[in-house]
Design a protein that fits this description.
The protein is of the alpha/beta class. 35% of the residues lie in helices and 28% in strands. Strands 7, 8, 9, 10, 11, 12, 15, 16 and 18 form a nine-stranded mixed sheet that branches. The protein has a seven-stranded parallel sheet with strand order 3-2-1-4-5-6-17, with helices on both faces. The protein has a two-stranded antiparallel sheet with strand order 13-14. The longest helix is centred in the C-terminal third of the chain and has 18 residues. The termini are far apart. 49% of the residues are buried. Bound molecules: NADPH dihydro-nicotinamide-adenine-dinucleotide phosphate. The site of NADPH dihydro-nicotinamide-adenine-dinucleotide phosphate has 32 residues, from helix 1.
Length: 400
């Protein structure tokens, strides 16, 4: 059916690429392009013997728009799936615009020198994408991603209006290290050490990092402490869910993770301000990244489950209603299937599905759109088929 150019070859990309190769009717050709060509070649060597998808590889610096344009002109993909880092979103969008190619990503743009993420930079491309007749699908991971699809599905099938939304992201996995992150350490630590915030009655309420704590009993995992974080999908869902009054995002963290993080913060290791070290400028957080375990290496040693989902409260036919949509995913099952732990898996599968929606023409809306702006039904079906089956409850315990 089509050709996809996949940029990046880390933890999430590896899962998405495995899944494209299981889905060769849709992904007839893929090109894996990243900064380190040897990683792309190694993945190709592993997957090509067992898939009908034709795989090619390329080296690309995704910070360089001209290099990207040259690669897209040469390979001529139908869609570009950006699985590099959030820093590269805008250069890749520029190259898609110049070549009139559809675009999909999993995380919103962040400038490298400011730990701040918001959609304004990417939404600024709306008109130009619309005029070029191409679709940009923003945030096709799990959160953002599936959480937006769940919201669109709840609104379409279960509510006249959703008033309260709590997104709960629980990782009950244990990798046996005192401290490691489940996806890119630099991006992860920037996210969790930032101030928290939630959206209520039309405005943002800011909190100190980890100030708001709740305990929740997750199916498949058990009771966990979870903390309120700022998260990017709150920004788009606040616009796209009419009548919404409050959106909060909670993520679980163990005490060991929080103690290590506090200590690293206190000694300055999570700072993104460059410092002088032996005559060279280094960024402490980037140095920390280099000494922490590579998230891609956690697969074999991580056991336990993730449980990520959304609790909705609102009205249907004049009656109050509550509804919980969630997915439970097992780290070891993911590892056996694609050689990765569940955090990469729960992001890589929806990334593949998002690109598939575009290639199949099921989601075709020129402009720049967040995932909840599309019809959720084909995506929900695909989650069941491609490894992330969802569950629902009509009487969930609420978060106070
Ligand atoms: P990794 O660090 O494992 O992989 C990033 C990849 O991008 C690496 O292969 C890296 O190359 C490549 N890369 C980085 N910079 C460039 C560049 N300038 N040019 C070309 N390639 C580059 O990260 P993850 O796989 O953990 O995360 C990937 C994305 O997924 C991130 O944006 C992250 O925020 C997002 N994410 C989204 C989630 C969601 O639910 N929505 C959840 C988890 C992650 P090299 O191998 O040379 O380092």
């Amino acid at each position: 059916m089509g050709k996809a150019l996949i940029i990046g070859c880390g933890g999430v990309a590896s899962v998405a690429i495995h899944k494209c190769c299981q889905n060769s009717d849709v992904f007839e050709h893929i090109c894996i392009a990243s900064r380190t060509l040897s990683k792309c070649d190694a993945l190709k060597a592993k997957l090509q013997p067992n898939t009908a998808t034709r795989i090619t590889t390329a080296q690309v610096n995704a910070d360089d728009v001209n290099e990207l344009i040259a690669l897209i002109r040469d390979y001529r993909p139908d869609v570009v799936l950006n699985l590099a880092l959030p820093y590269q979103d805008l250069t890749i969008m520029e190259a898609c615009l110049a070549t009139k190619t559809h675009y999909v990503d999993t995380a919103n743009y962040e400038p490298e020198d400011t730990a701040k993420f918001e959609y304004s930079w990417q939404w600024a491309y709306r008109e130009r994408f619309e005029q070029a007749g191409i679709t940009a699908l923003l945030g096709s991971g799990f959160d953002p991603g599936v959480t937006g699809v769940f919201s669109a599905y709840a609104l379409k099938h279960h509510f006249d209006e959703i008033h309260y939304l709590d997104i709960l992201d629980c990782n009950g996995g244990d990798h046996g290290y005192p401290f490691a992150t489940n996806f890119n350490p630099e991006i992860n630590i920037r996210e969790v050490s930032a101030k928290g915030s939630y959206w209520q009655d039309g405005k943002w309420i800011e909190t100190e990092p980890m100030e708001i704590k709740r305990v929740y009993d997750f199916e498949g995992v058990g009771q966990k402490d979870m903390y309120l974080l700022h998260h990017e999908e709150i920004e788009s869902l606040a616009l796209n869910l009419p009548g919404i009054r409050r959106i909060r995002f909670f993520m679980t963290f163990g005490q060991s993770y929080l103690t290590h993080l506090k200590c690293l913060e206190n000694v300055g290791m999570t700072s993104i301000q460059p410092i002088e070290y032996e005559g060279k400028q280094i960024v402490p957080l980037q140095f920390l990244r280099a000494v922490l375990p590579d998230p891609a290496s956690l697969g074999p040693r991580t056991v336990g489950k993730t449980n990520i989902g959304c609790i909705f409260q609102g009205v249907k036919d004049g009656n109050p209603k509550r509804y919980y949509l969630y997915n439970v995913c097992d780290h070891q099952e993911c590892y056996r299937e694609v050689g990765s732990q569940a955090i990469s898996y729960t992001t890589g599968v929806p990334a593949m599905i998002g690109a598939m929606m575009i290639l199949q023409g099921k989601w075709n809306k020129p402009g720049v759109h967040n995932i909840e702006e599309f019809d959720p039904d084909p995506f929900m079906d695909a989650l069941n088929r491609w490894g992330l089956p969802w569950k629902e409850s009509f009487d969930p315990v609420l978060v106070d």
